[in-house]
Amino acid sequence: MKHLILFLIFCSMSKLTFATGIGYALSGGGARGFAHIGILKVLEEEGLAPDYISGTSIGAVIGAFYAMGYNAAQIESLAIEIDWEGLLQNKIPRRDLYVGQKRWAPYGNTVLELDEKWNPKFPTSLYKANNLNLKLFELYAPSSHVRDFSQLEIPFSCVATDLQRGQGKEFVSGSLWQAVRASLSVPSLILPFKVGERMYIDGGIAQNLPISEARALGADLVVGIKVNSSLREEENLDSIIDILDQTINIGISRNLNANLDDCDLLLEPELNPYSSQDFKHAAEIIAIGEHYARTKLTEIQEFMRLQGVTRTPQRASKAFPTKKYRVKQLEVSGNKRISFAKIREYLGLKIPGIYSAKEISAAARKALNSQYFNVLYPEMIPEAEGGYTLKIILKEKQAKSLTLNIAY
Question: 259 and 195 in one domain?
């Protein structure tokens, strides 16, 4: 009995003395996810730092930045500067059109693709998100050399949903930006994203608050930040987007609520009236997250005390200077009708050569402006001897199409 009492006392003291691996689980929630940034700012100030990060959808976007080494203030600047709504637009600026295309541009032409039997092919999403693909490629380019996410400054994973199997997929390796992009493919709004041989949609469908994924990385304690939308009332269900958002949130609520008890510290800011589509209000949503976290300081500090968490110095800004990449060769994947030589011509890059991520992105955008492709994006694959292979992944448009023009 005496030994048992001593053992229990030792265990209790150990809990107060020795910190264990801490994981952050960042939920999806669209624009509401900007609140993650405000909460991260306060956690940094309190000296609470994660050993692991897992994210879903917008939580994957922010979590990946944090895992790369950005601090919360840097992520805040990025979130406010980026034109998120512009990244989803399919329209090509007139200045980027070829001469022949400019003739019809003022008339708002609509193109409907036709299959081999002249049947119309309807789009699988509202937005193709090519601009989003290229922006993510640029933003995460400094980590192009990292193919194992455990080798980032903070080990990282993110969750997407396998569209063919209906199962969650935890990405822990590969291309960082592609993993993040797969995680935020909101069904019917943003085009599903293909990684390898599988198609993926938003990770929130399978696991919106990736607590178990953070534990799988090695976390003993998990701080969960939940920002997804609550279900709407009837008066707020008056558009097709509202209905779609509600349908998605019903499924998300079920998988999320079943998972909450496994969280050691749950932070859940009240974000109404902001919705998942309010990307123009990044600054306001970040401020709400920060204010909420300050109201929870006592709870956060008590969590740190009970778990024996040692305060760490506040995270400093990390410089990510513009980097040039030595591109040694070009590969193209997905072309059937359009030749490698023609695609190389559209890109306008001289390979081998040395280019920044922005220059590569601009070349990909130039090829997209030809309007021969539904999807086209670059990927840099590190080579063992140094340098990169630039791989262009694309999906061609159908050979036949019906163009509708309105003139008056």
Answer: yes
